[in-house]
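User: structure tokens for this one?
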Amino acid sequence: MQIHINGSTLELVQGDITQQDVDAIVNAANSSLLGGGGVDGAIHHAAGPELLAECRTLGGCETGNAKITRGYRLKARYVIHAVGPVYRDGKHGEPELLASAYRAALELAAQHQCASIAFPAISTGAYGYPMEEAARIAFRVIIDYLGEHPEIARVRYVLYDARALALHARVLEQVLAE
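Assistant:
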């Protein structure tokens, strides 16, 4: 699925984020930035030990923020480590923190002249954020950002399986209809 916003493209694909041929991939990182499970572990594994060595120099990252490193063995030049919130009940600032993590990643991509960026579904794995709510927040932030910042030509939202892709496509259609 593809949509066009202010000269930029937002696309939803099923695949492996570590294999994306884009300027930057976003890592759904924990606040230590020192690796973990899921997307985080896969990115660290694919990028090689140099990524962990660079992450050790960054001093972690606050929830709702992002930091950038080189991509090392990935096709992507950069990895943007975005720290989403652990979901409790949606009443402890989780929506604002998730939106902030997406916005911070987009801002870092723009600052580093990245014309293309690939996102995973931040906070929806081990952090327990309900996928539909998280998708709605992500798409609102991405659409708003692209509406004002055409320097990012392509945002690819990479989902691991067909079920997640179908859910995200449905949510994107709803967001566009609002």
